[in-house]
Amino acid sequence: MSWIPDEILPHEEQQRRSPLAPVEPPASVRPIWDWEELNAKFRPRLIAAGVIRFGLTQDECEDAAQTVFLKVLAMNPRVRDPKAYLRAAFLNRCDTIIEARDRGHKIAFTDRVAETARTTEKSGSPSRTLWKRVQDCLTKRTRS
Amino acid sequence: MTRVVTATHPSETDLLNLAMGREPGDDTAAARKHVDDGCRRCAQRLRDLSRLVETGKKENAFDSLLESDLLPELRRPTMGRTLPFVKARVSVDDVYRLSQTAEKPSELILQAARAGPDELAAALRSLDGQGYRGFALLYAAQKADKLVAEDPNKALALARLIFEEAATLPLSNPKERVASPAPRQAVLAEAALLESQALLQKGEADSARKVIGPARDLFRESGDLGFGVALCDYYEGQASGFAGDYDDAESLLKRALAVFSEFGQGQLMGRGEAALGTVLGQRGDAHRALGCFDRALEFLDPESDSRPLTMVLNNRAHTLARLGRLDEARATFARALNLARRHGYKSSVFFVRTGLADLDFRRGQYARALRAFIDLSREAGEIGAPMQVLFARLYVAECHARLGSYGPMATEVEGLRRERQANRFSPSPALGELFVCLDQGTIDADLIAHVREYLQDEENGVKRAYRPLRLVG
How many CB atoms lie within 10 A of CB A87? Predict the structure, then answer.
């Protein structure tokens, strides 16, 4: 018995069809989005949830919401459940912002240690002083 | 000093209880001790589970806020930023209206692509200077999967034209707030996906796979949030399956499925499961394929996904038949047939009827199968489907042989020899052996079955050298 491919073509096209070629099922009937609800109700909730649950600033959350709303519009024919898409995309965006922020903190810390080391070296302080200052940096970071 | 760790690692449940901080029982305490004793592997498992629990808690809290009736009041910053420091965001409402305006032009592009190159060129020129041009090109590429099914060459031409047209669109700049809503990279990526689908439909699986690499990069450049790359995985997975690279296909499709699930797109999960089932079926793993088809059925809607649903039912029925569950297979074929007839999918009806005839054949009801395959062979000839003609005629010959009608069997095989140039298996040594045995008068049902099974495997992408029946024993 022949394995039937993913999609079955209209009669007139079978001639051209190669035996195993799958066909993406045609775009199905798309439900119409309730844009008013998405933009007026869901969007402020996303922003608030981002601020409250992830500790992001309102500005960051508004940027994230803006990005995911533009993305969902760019995927309109493919997206059937826009709320689910927006939720997942927004969560991903929040993660990215938090990661970027953490990375920024790490870089700032490294810069501070390097600056301390340079200053200590310039002033001709002994290595013990340098070590103490680096330890101070570390202590401050732990507290923060 | 080296620490001694007990050989028995705690179960996932115990570690999960530990990660969730549930009431300490003996097992949880033992798990804690095991980790504290220095088992690195379990410490890593515990860290992973803790991260998972933490993410789950955050997401639950996030969801409860999204679903709450009251919108939490946010404290406004006391010192709001003022111009010129505030970069204005583009109004999402305006972009939505723009995208809605692009719906009709995108449909017109598809109609023009069906009509011919001149009409398509005119349709594309009509977009010049329009604000919605980017969206129209983007949506046309996304909606063109129906065209792929109808005519892959026209879909390919459309994909390449959209690729050229996109060159004049503004670039994406994800770091800027005033980002282009339908940027060049996104349109190029969608055009590449369309090209890949068309190439796969034409049977060029390797070329279809190659196109996906650049599409993945383009999606990333356009500031993709994971969904575009998942689409790339889905299409590449399909292409890999048809290129015979089943391991790659399986892992790509599973990755795509995880993202579709994360983004809550049930219809794409249904299609992903169906594609995975097809790959597993192709590699002969009928049990797992059946599981995939069953899951696909849960996601697909009989009204809005009637065509993919027909396909899934059809493939599920074939899988059941392979497993020898013939009654269930018949019932599933019946569902597929009803659906296909209700929606007027003539070609689906043809394939389902082929499946039903095959079931009769497997049950040993050769007279009934013979009648069905004779009809199917004639219909396949009328619609110009040479491969279907070949297989139907092989079945007809085999049914005759099993019924002891050697004269009609020989006539059928003779007919196949006359028309062998019509199908791509004409140079196959399998057909060669069949015709030689016909001349020598040594042809029988077993030989026809041997040849048919070999050609069916080849049709399904299984590459193996042909072994004449006399050598097989």
Answer: 23
Residues B181, A73: C-beta atoms closer than 8 Å: yes
A84 touches chain B (CB under 8 A): yes
Distance from CA of A56 to the nearest CA of B (A): 12
B-chain residues near A13 (CB < 8 A): 149-151
Mutating which of A8, A38, A69, A83 best tests the B interface, going by the most B Cβ atoms within 10 A? Answer: A8
**Do the Cβ atoms of B242 and A39 come within 8 Å?**
no
A35/B318 touch (CB, cutoff 8 Å), yes or no: no
Task: Report pLDDT digits (tens) over B155-205.
Answer: 999 999 999 999 888 787 655 555 567 788 999 999 999 999 999 888 788
Mutate to test the interface with B, among A2, A52, A86, A96 (most CBs of B within 10 A): A2
B248 and B303 in a single domain? The answer is no
Sign of the Cα pseudo-torsion (B404, B408, B414, B419, in order): negative
Contact B41, A15 (CB under 8 A): no
Residue ending a domain, choose from B311, B340, B362:
B362
User: Closest by alpha carbon to B183, among A67, A89, A25?
Assistant: A67
Q: Which domain holds residue B341?
A: 284-362
Cis peptide before B84 (omega within 30 of 0): yes
SS3 (DSSP) at B337? helix
Q: Are residues B254 and B210 in the same domain?
A: yes
Q: Could you report the predicted ipTM of this complex, rounded to two decimals?
A: 0.77
Q: Are residues B178 and B226 in the same domain?
A: yes
Cα–Cα distance for residue pair A83/A72, rounded to 1 Å: 9
**Phi, psi angles (nearest 5°) of residue A14:** -60, -30
| Whether A27 contacts B145, CB under 8 Å | yes
How confident is the model over A37-94, as pLDDT tens digits?
A: 999 989 999 999 999 888 899 989 998 999 999 999 999 999 999 999 999 999 999 9
- CATH number at B358 reads 1.25.40
Residue of chain B with shortest Cα separation from A59 = B77
Describe the crossing of helices B26-36 and B12-20 by its angle, rounded to 10 degrees.
Answer: 90
Q: Is the C-alpha dihedral spanning B98, B101, B107, B108 positive or negative? A: negative
